[in-house]
Amino acid sequence: MSITKDNKTHTWTVQFYYTDWTGEKKHKKKEDLPQKKRGRNGKGDF
Questions:
Q1: What is the pLDDT of residues 4-39, one digit of tens each?
Q2: Taking Cα atoms as reference points, which of 14, 8, 12 lies closest to residue 35?
Q3: Where are the domains of the chain?
Q4: In Å, how far are 4, 25, 26, 39, 44 from 33, measured between CA atoms?
Q5: How far apart are CA 46 and CA 33, in angstroms?
């Protein structure tokens, strides 16, 4: 899981890869998070 900050908008982005039940790799990305801790805890929100 990768958490990065966009210095232009001062928001955080979270992205990660996972394997679904069929064995296919998937990519999830969530942007514009106001705080870093919401990104760390937000993995279950996808």
A1: 888 998 888 888 899 999 999 999 988 877 777 666
A2: 12
A3: 2-45
A4: 10, 24, 21, 7, 14
A5: 13
Residue 27 and residue 13 in contact, taking contact as beta carbons nearer than 8 Å: no
SS (H, E, C) the chain: CEEEEECCCCEEEEEEEEECCCCCEEEEEEEEECCHHHHHHHHHHC
Task: Sheet containing 25-33: give its strands across.
Answer: 2-6, 11-19, 25-33
